[in-house]
Amino acid sequence: MKLRGVFLAIVVLLFVSVPLGRLNASLTSMQYSPNNDNGLRTETDRSPTQSIVVPEGFRVTLIASGLSPIGTGANYLNSLQDLEPGRGDFGSYLYFIDNGVIYRIATPGEQPQPFAYVPAALVMRFGFDGDLFVGTATGKVMRVFSDGTTSLFAQVGTSIEGMAFDTSSSSAYGSRLFVSEWIDGGYGRVSAIDASGIVQIFTSPGSVGIETAGLQFCGSIPKLYALDQPGTIFEISNTGSVNLLGGIDLQSQIQYAETLACSKGNAGFGNYLYLAEQGYQPAGRILRVSTDGGIEVFASGFQGFDWWAVTGLKFSPDGRTLYVTDDVGRSIYAIQSGDIVQEARLDIGMPYDTNRGCTSPYIGCSGPFHGFYNGVCTDLVLDAYRAGALFDIQGALLRDRDAYPGRYLNGTARRAEDMRLYFDHNQQFLQHSEPYYPGDIAFFDWTGDGLTDHVLVISEVDATGRPVRMVDASGIIPYGINPSGLAFEHNWSNHYEQHIQGHARLNSTDLWATSILSESLQTLRVSVSPASVGLSVFDSNGKSVSETYNENFVASNVETFIPYIPRGSYVSLNAHKIITITRPLSNTSQYFVRIEGLANATYTLHIETQQDTAVTASQTFIQAINAGENHNIGVTLTAPNGIISFTTQPPMTIPVVVVPASLSLRGLVGTSAQFNFPIYEVGGQEAISNASITVTDLWTQYGMRVSSNQLAITPVHFNLTAGGTQEIDVQVSLADLNPGEYLGSLILTMQNGNPMVIPLTLQVQYHKLYLPCIVRN
Q1: DSSP output for 574-629
Q2: Which end of the chain is less congested by CB atoms within 10 angstroms, N or C?
Q3: What percentage of the chain exceeds 70 in pLDDT?
Q4: Is 517 contained in some domain?
Q5: Do residue 467 and residue 534 come from a single domain?
Q6: In whole angstroms, how far apart are CA 148 and each of 103, 121, 132, 154, 757?
Q7: Rounded to 5 degrees, what are φ and ψ at 613?
Q8: Which domain holds residue 176?
Q9: pLDDT digits over 559-616, tens only?
Q10: For residue 618, what are the β-bridge partners?
């Protein structure tokens, strides 16, 4: 501590003869976006960063080098501070301290420019009213205004080595500025400063070590952490009580620590405290520590010796970039994982198709688009985040679904609504009025039913954080926007403005949180045995749950096209077949259980409802069934006093109806399309009574609609004898329709059987002209 104080005195004396502009810097080729991460993002790195080792998937970028040499004295490049969005006139710069001068880096290719002079400056933090607060080796807290002028804000006892400001609106710490100090005699303490500059001692001297340096708030429920330079990390409560992090003294595992930073689960950084280590051997490491005291090396290879190595460590406001200062190397680095926007752009040109062309829609198979051959809007987002943020949205969603079974409609991130639900519950889901970052996911509701129909990746925003461009896989868009239907990048428009639900980013999943969400769960559970009978459950809309499942229907993201009951699952356990529907009343109150005789058998059917795993009602049927026969059991759900229950009738024999698994028709713009299909009764015992065919509206991924009344169905009503066939004719005029792929369903209802859904695709195509040509050798 004394050695450092002597060096700082030299800095103050020498500064008089050193012009403010005496700072040389060379910047690599950079792409600067003031609304990206409010820092500097490098596309091409030609800098000598090979000696720095980071985890696989991360990259190191040299932001600035050739800063004033250390030989002139104690050059303290020890505090970088990135601006939060919307902090007034400070602008989107990367600020750092060197020799008592606060510099800022602005646009690509520019040298760092001197911004303000604060003698003996050591650390800084943005705080009250968005101003910059700087702590000095003489115990002063200086307030720096947006024009670079300064004023004394507060005075504490001695050298300020760490600063933290809690920006949480619900903070238990009182929204104060906290500083860590070195007290003469070798004791550290923390003081709190309110908005008027009044200082209050927060922890007693020595309670946070002997050389308290780093100070950082961390966690979704903020806690204050202090770092003692010998290597101990303390957790400080809002009352000032102090405990060891995880109950462990990490001093034996850390060699002289300097500064502390907090990640929030973004871009592969996880949920950790990061600290800069300045020990003798090996010097220049970055460690990360979990709340239970677990510690690991995150990065190494920075230059340094004795106490001088990595002296500054700060995350950008969005948590996607870790900025590092190397005091001996006189350089500033940025550590980042993959780039979401860049990876999204690698899917440009991808054909629009729910079938990704691989065995699994989540595991690539050497295709040109992140291993796949085709994809839809959600696939593009999954690709971009898996490669660009090292984050598997689908894997995270499945883990969350297992913890909260009633949360998701289909349990796949290929369903846009389920992706939105995942981000809403686990990450950060923002209102449209809040600023966007490139890489954010935008969510849209075309139909107005509250469900997400489409997603895309924001690729560019303006100076106010409004979306400007986006990478999108939406299929054909008319009006000359995207006639090919391939994934592309295009401009934000009023069409998207009218249907936007919000946007999301990886910014709020926080393993530091201590609260556990409790959700009440209602369930309908149906099981049958033996294995020689089939089991299906239908709802009043004709959607079903059975052993047959095709996720490509779900990936269409058109609610009326998806033939499956939301939150339904099917499993086969030994001789039992089990269907579970969670939160069934959020869908409908009427369900139909269908038993199919695969052979002559006597089956045992058990139906029950559960509330938080407690059985609230149950019914068991034991019934004989013949091969080729179908039985139907109607189930009506109720919830008296909020407790789920049901009523039902004994099984009855119903017609065995066979319809197409899906239907498709196509035609050219300006013409008409027509097709017919059969409906069979194959049981030969029961006639179909009072059957009707209706059609839903059809939608594209761009939100274009074909109204149900534009399709003509003949016949609409019919009866069908046992063993008979009924031909259904469907016609639609394409005269006033735009090109695109429209999705919806036909719904078959009958008096003596369960409703059935038939997914319907209408492809309206451009006219294709073929011109003759002569080829000469």
Answers
A1: TTEEEEEEESGGGT-SEEEEEEEESSSEEEEEEEEEEETTEEEEEEEEEEEE-TT-
A2: C
A3: 83
A4: no
A5: no
A6: 10, 14, 10, 18, 67
A7: 75, -5
A8: 2-336
A9: 999 999 999 999 999 899 999 999 999 999 999 999 999 999 999 999 999 999 899 9
A10: 608
